[in-house]
Task: structure prediction
Amino acid sequence: MSTFWTAFAALVPSIGVGVLFYFAMRFIIRADRNERANLARLDAEEDARTEREVPPTGAGITP
Result:
């Protein structure tokens, strides 16, 4: 049974690092997803504000 605990003790640091890596990557991916969503929202608001301020000129249409 001593061999089991020795092998288990050798694997614990690797498992711990793997768990930390998993949570770090999860945090990074979620932060990126939230940042992209917020930037898209801000771009949409800015586009809407620009369309309200400057009406389209009808480029390419001759009277």
Remarks:
- The CA atoms of residues 51 and 57 lie 11 Å apart.
- Residues 1-51 form one domain.
- Helices lie at 2-53.
